[in-house]
Specification:
This is Bifunctional aspartokinase/homoserine dehydrogenase. With 815 residues, this protein is of the alpha/beta class. 42% of the residues lie in helices and 21% in strands. The chain folds into 4 domains: 227 residues, Acetylglutamate kinase-like (Carbamate kinase), CATH 3.40.1160; 153 residues, VC0802-like (2-Layer Sandwich); 148 residues, Rossmann fold (3-Layer(aba) Sandwich); 183 residues, Dihydrodipicolinate Reductase, domain 2, CATH 3.30.360.10. The two termini are 56 Å apart. The structure holds adenosine-5'-diphosphate, aspartic acid (ASP) and magnesium ion (MG). Magnesium ion binds next to loops.
């Protein structure tokens, strides 16, 4: 004997009814089958709204018509596909049932309320009619049917809307039916009968429970629950797209999953199956090939301890605090007993060890009832003090993580809380399930979906994701996108995935999705009509739900650089090739770092000095490990390295500068390079990194050019005027050469923090002697590195090297 239960999702239309009939036929060939049916999808919801709209007869009739039409449409279509279907007979029954409902609606209107026994009758019509339709499909295919009437045979105890089955008595009753072995057995789910043989319900979604009960009563070998998904997933697959199917889970795990909200199973389904040791398989009516999920007594040790992540919404949390609790130790106990007596289900409890307060969560719909109970029952116990000390939080959800002995997993808590914290999700309460198979977290409902995705990724995905929001698509930004695209497979093999979420310049922003390939992003960017400004940016920050989110600033925009503290406080790491933040006031410089420390976020700027050369990281490594500076000397400008190199080859200053400009080594107006200010900025960043508290104005700049050159704002004019000082320069070069030296534009940091940038004559022993052609070189004389300094040398400009520096910062977010 095998039980097959089909849920509403498997009976949503005529085609699905016929598909279910085919599944029954196929299974019937091997062994006797007993079928439990739910109402077609949405039907119970319509019936519930009849009850809810109990004062408005027109609205009640509207709902009744809606439900009736769905049934009529279903049978019309069945008749079309299977012409021999007993259509007229079925239609007659549907009409009778809905006429009954219309009469009930009239009397509800008259009495202006709908008692629970009548509610149960109304809400059960979907299941009753599903059975009629299915029996007529099967009869028309010449099968013999036995219908089990659940009102007479499934004895249930409790209220009319959510009662509990007495399995032993039901088993006795069903055994006495002596069902013919060749018959297909059909029974309506969701329905049972009380001692007085009145119809009662087993609670919403309760036909899974009916199937489990019938399996026990008929000594079935297996209970199959057929639905619209392949089985039990690590989370609701309709919400979490990368949730995956669990091949098998234990009874205890299934119980815990369903209790904490995995709707695929009614919470009470598993208990009876476990008691009678009947395995259960969850299968998909729309995918017969899938093996589904097996729920049974074994526990597969090879599987991940964590089985799933679930959610319960519409939760309210009561917190009771104050002296009263301290004085009257039994108040928690008393409150819980009162709630239990009123059948109010407490989902979760937390209690502070100081005994000064406790909190409990229930469904929000119970809130008024609970307040009423407190008001009524605590009269003698300083009711006023109690009610003054009750704090209620609405609109909550409970996220639970389920797995057998889940607490054995030592890194669980850190993964959960760091991933939620990373996305700035506030945890309101935490509770360990008394079974030790779950951990539950109370959070605001507005954050539940986001939190489920985050926690699911943190616990089930070995991959580490970095989510990039790129601002600035000049040479460096573009080169960075290319490099990320090129390294995709290489990084995937290391379980790293970099997802660029947005790309923007000062005007527009492109939101990337899976259809936009990093190879063709420019086409989509051109088509994008979404404007980019600080408001768009702030919306983006607020709504971001990704962990390891990084803003990369590849602009030279000062306004943007002033937003970094804001970015960090909103949960982003910041990577800047833009130097403006680090050369801003010392106060801002320090504030960024304080915020980053507070928020546990990274602020990385390796490319601020020497482009891709590992300058900042090297310095941090040295000083973190106790080294100290004796002296720094460096060539920090690629353009000045090129120009001063050319002077040695007897090329005039103006010609060398023009060549540098033509090769793209200089700013649009080369005056900006020759002014020395850019070198001073880099020196400032280095000095601050070493620990000197200085401002840009503290750096002594010995100008390369006479002051009057400032007036030449136009590059052509500037280059023309530069000729006026060619001979002076040539003379300096000659003098230096006569004593075996060359001219270099050098930045210096002395011990104590004095900084200067100036032209220096360098002898052949100095590591800077050979540095030209656009190369940068940085020499650090330190306690550890002396008398021979630590030298970093290489190209200090260029899109590819700068982008690779930004890229390596990006990987430091997770490595
Ligand atoms: P039926 O009508 O067949 O009883 P339900 O809607 O009651 O179907 O239950 C199936 C639904 O349960 C799925 O469509 C899915 O969205 C939801 N669900 C929630 N959590 C899970 C989970 N962990 N695994 C599979 N499905 C889940
Ligand atoms: N039809 C009922 C409901 O929607 C029972 C069930 O589907 O299991 O709650
Ligand atoms: Mg269901």
């Amino acid at each position: 004997m095998k039980i097959l239960k089909f849920g509403g999702t498997s009976l949503a239309n005529a085609e699905k009814f016929l598909c279910v009939a085919d599944i029954i036929e196929n299974n019937k060939n091997n062994e006797q089958v007993a079928i439990v049916l739910s109402a077609p999808a949405q039907i119970t919801n319509y019936l519930v709204s009849i009850v809810e709209k109990n004062t408005n007869i027109n609205q009640m009739l509207e709902q009744i018509d809606l439900a009736e039409n769905i049934f009529i449409e279903i049978i019309k279509k069945i008749k079309k596909i299977q012409s021999y279907f007993l259509y007229e007979e079925t239609k007659k029954i549907i009409t009778i049932e809905f006429n009954k409902l219309k009469k009930i609606a009239d009397s509800i209107k008259l009495f202006e309320k709908c008692p629970e026994n009548i509610q149960a009758i109304i809400m059960s019509r979907g299941e009753i009619l599903s059975i009629w339709i299915m029996q007529n499909i099967l009869r028309s295919r010449n099968y013999k049917i036995t219908i089990i009437n659940p009102i007479e045979n499934i004895l249930s105890i409790g209220g009319f809307l959510s009662s509990t089955v007495d399995i032993n008595e039901s088993k006795k009753r069903i055994s006495s039916l002596n069902i013919n072995k060749n018959h297909i057995i059909l029974m309506a789910g969701f329905i049972a009968g009380n001692k007085k043989n009145e119809l009662v319900l087993l609670g919403r979604n309760g036909s899974d429970y009916s199937a489990a009960i019938l399996a026990c009563c008929l000594d079935a070998k297996l209970c199959e629950i057929w639905t619209d998904v392949d089985g039990v997933f690590t989370s609701d697959p309709k919400k979490i797209s990368n949730a995956f199917l669990l091949k098998s889970i234990s009874y205890d795990e299934a119980m815990e999953l369903s209790y904490f909200g995995a709707k695929v199973l009614h919470p009470r389904t598993i208990e009876p199956l476990k008691q009678f040791n009947i395995p259960c398989i969850i299968k998909n009516t729309a995918n017969l090939k899938s093996n589904g999920t097996l729920i049974y007594s074994q526990h597969d040790c090879n599987q991940n301890i964590i089985k799933g992540i679930t959610n319960l919404d519409n939760i309210v949390m009561f917190t009771v605090s104050g002296n009263l609790i301290k004085q009257k130790n039994n108040i928690l106990f008393k409150m819980l007993s009162l709630l239990q007596k009123e059948n109010i289900h407490v989902i979760l409890i937390t209690k502070s060890s100081s005994k000064n307060n406790f909190s409990f969560c229930t469904l929000a719909k119970e809130k008024q009832k609970i307040l009423y109970i407190i008001n009524k029952s605590f009269k003698l116990e300083s009711k006023e003090e109690l009610s003054n000390n009750i704090h209620i939080i609405n609109n909550l959800s409970i996220l639970s993580i389920i797995g057998l002995n889940i607490f054995k997993k030592h890194d669980l808590a850190s993964k959960i809380f760091s991933s939620l914290g990373d996305c700035k999700i506030n945890v309101i309460a935490i509770s360990q399930g008394s079974s030790k198979h779950s951990i539950s977290i109370v959070i605001e409902t507005k954050n539940i979906l986001k939190s489920m995705k985050i926690v699911h990724d943190a616990l089930f995905c070995n991959k580490r994701f970095i989510n990039v929001f790129l601002i600035g698509i000049g040479g460096v930004g573009k080169a960075l996108i290319k490099q990320i695209f090129k390294q995709k497979i290489f990084l995937q093999n290391k379980n790293i995935e970099i997802k660029i979420r947005t790309i923007s310049n000062s005007k527009k922003i492109l939101f990337l999705n899976d259809s936009i390939n990093l190879e063709n992003w420019e086409k989509f960017f051109q088509q994008s009509k979404t404007k980019f400004n600080l408001e768009v940016l702030s919306n983006l920050l607020e709504n971001n739900s990704f962990s390891n989110s990084v803003i990369i600033d590849c602009t030279s925009d000062e306004i943007l650089s002033k937003q970094y503290i804001n970015f960090i406080s909103q949960g982003f790491h910041v990577i800047a090739s833009n130097k403006k933040a680090n050369t801003n006031s010392l106060k801002y410089y320090n504030n960024i770092r304080t915020e980053a420390l507070k928020e546990n976020k990274k602020f990385l700027y390796e490319t601020n000095v020497g482009a891709g050369l590992p300058v900042i990281q090297t310095l941090q490594n040295l000083f973190n490990t106790g080294d100290s500076l004796i002296c720094f000397k460096g060539i920090l400008s690629g353009s000045l390295s090129f120009i001063f190199g050319k002077l040695e080859e007897n090329i005039l200053l103006s010609d060398a500068t023009k060549q540098a400009k033509d090769l793209g080594f200089t700013e649009p107006n080369p005056f900006d390079d020759l002014s020395g200010i850019d070198v001073a900025r880099k020196l400032l960043i280095l000095a601050r990194e070493i620990g000197y508290h200085i401002e840009l104005k503290d750096i002594e700049i010995e100008p390369i050019l006479p002051k009057y050159f400032q007036q030449y704002k136009n590059a052509e004019e500037f280059l023309y005027k530069l000729k006026e000082i060619d001979t002076v320069f040539m003379e300096r070069v000659k003098i230096a050469r006569s004593i075996g030296k060359v001219l270099r534009f050098v930045g210096t940091i002395e011990k104590g923090g004095k900084c200067s940038v100036k032209i220096e004559e360098i002898n052949s022993q100095n590591p800077l002697y050979k540095v030209k052609n656009g190369e940068n070189a940085l020499t650090f004389y330190t306690n550890y590195y002396q008398p021979i300094p630590l030298v970093l040398r290489g190209y200090g400009a260029g899109n590819d090297v700068t982008a690779s520096g930004v890229f390596s910062d990006l990987l430091r977010i997770i490595l």
